[in-house]
């Protein structure tokens, strides 16, 4: 299928409208994308290709790598969006250019990949360590907690009756409470019973204990998770930054947004709710977590298409 160039320009306008409705301002990025669309139209290409994007991103010759990376970053999310409509669209890899300063792109674990990581955790020894990491990783994945928030949890922070977790040692010293699903409560309660049997008099009042009876250390947990991900075959070829524990927090945010779009609710008013749940000071801090995935872009484009059809 060949997509007329005017249609690509229209898709760019719709894409920017969609992203801005989610709270992104996209002032410079939006202008860069429209500049690229003009370049693309002059090229005569019928499909967006990685080589054409890279050619444009590195203009003018000798440009600062930071600037080139910014130009690539302005077009890449649009390419992901466009690919949902034109399967021949190529999405340029971020690894094509490096600026040395950019925040590493997060990795969204699929359910199957997370299951494989948990299976690798089950093989840890001794068995108490395996159970600790299975429960710890699962809690981070289903709540979007920061890794340090999970390791800082004390037993007194769990309200079994109300099914609530109280996060006290949060970023910016801002406490919050997280409601838990009954299945999460059951898994935590099972782990707590195993922990209390193994360590009836622990050195720390922590929810998650090491095999020495001390509080689990966040940096150590991150290293163990990275190793488990490698053993599970979850890797990013060509990327310096491999899947890591904090990616589970990003995945929680993206999957929450996907679930909202599937149910047909108005997502805009719910973003501050997600921001509060994640412990951000303001919604702007949440937007970075909501970078597009192919599935998310497809859901958003469907919603936008319905909206535009109603307006026409």
SSE topology sketch:
Elements: H1 5-21, H2 27-43, H3 50-57, H4 65-83, H5 111-122, H6 127-143, H7 147-151, E1 158-159, E2 164-167, E3 176-179, H8 182-198, H9 218-231, H10 247-263, H11 271-278, H12 284-287, H13 294-311
Antiparallel strand pairs: 1-2, 2-3
Helix pairs in contact: 1-2, 2-4, 3-4, 5-6, 5-9, 6-8, 6-10, 10-13
Counting DSSP H or I runs of 4 or more residues, the number of helices is 13
Ranges where pLDDT stays below 50 over 5 or more residues in a row are none
CATH superfamily of the largest domain: Intergrase catalytic core
Name the CATH class of the largest domain.
Answer: Mainly Alpha
Order of strands in the sheet with the most strands?
1-2-3
What would CATH call the architecture of the largest domain?
Answer: Orthogonal Bundle
Q: What is the helix/strand order?
A: HHHHHHHEEEHHHHHH
Strand coverage percent: under 5%
Give the biggest sheet. Answer: 3 strands, antiparallel
Radius of gyration: 22 Å
The end-to-end span amounts to 25 Å
What CATH calls the topology of the largest domain is hpI Integrase, Chain A
Tell me roughly what share of residues is in helical segments: 55-70%
Global mean pLDDT? 85
Instruction: Quickly give the structural class.
Output: mainly alpha
> How would you sum up the global shape?
elongated
Pfam family, one: Phage_integrase
Domain Tyr recombinase: 104-302
InterPro entries: DNA_brk_join_enz, Integrase-like_cat_sf, Integrase_catalytic, Tyrosine_recombinase_XerCD
Protein name: Integrase/recombinase
């Amino acid at each position: 299928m060949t997509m007329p160039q005017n249609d690509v320009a229209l898709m760019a306008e719709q894409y920017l409208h969609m992203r801005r409705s989610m709270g992104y301002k996209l002032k410079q990025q939006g202008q860069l994308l429209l500049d690229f669309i003009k370049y693309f139209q002059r090229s005569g290409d019928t499909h967006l290709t990685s080589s054409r994007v890279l050619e444009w991103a590195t203009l003018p010759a000798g440009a600062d790598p930071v600037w080139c990376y910014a130009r690539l970053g302005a077009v890449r999310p649009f390419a992901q969006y466009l690919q949902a409509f034109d399967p021949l669209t190529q999405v340029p890899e971020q690894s094509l250019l490096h600026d040395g300063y950019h925040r590493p792109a997060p990795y969204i674990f699929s359910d199957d990949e997370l299951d494989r990581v948990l299976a690798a955790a089950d093989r840890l020894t001794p068995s108490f360590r395996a159970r600790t990491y299975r429960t710890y990783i699962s809690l981070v994945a289903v709540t979007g907690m920061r890794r340090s928030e999970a390791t800082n949890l004390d037993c007194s922070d769990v309200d079994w009756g109300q099914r609530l977790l109280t996060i006290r040692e949060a970023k910016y010293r801002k406490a919050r409470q997280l409601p838990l699903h009954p299945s999460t409560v059951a898994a935590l309660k099972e782990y707590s019973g195993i922990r209390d049997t193994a360590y009836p008099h622990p050195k720390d009042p922590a929810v998650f204990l090491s095999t020495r009876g001390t509080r689990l250390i966040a940096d150590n947990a991150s290293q163990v998770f990275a190793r488990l991900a490698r053993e599970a075959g979850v890797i990013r070829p060509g990327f310096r930054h491999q899947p890591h524990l904090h990616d589970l927090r990003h995945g929680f945010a993206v999957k929450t947004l996907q679930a909202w779009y599937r149910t047909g609710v108005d997502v805009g008013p719910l973003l501050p709710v997600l921001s509060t749940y994640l412990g951000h000071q303001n919604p702007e801090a949440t937007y970075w977590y909501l970078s597009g995935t192919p599935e998310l872009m497809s859901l958003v484009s469907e919603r936008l298409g319905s909206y535009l059809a109603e307006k026409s």
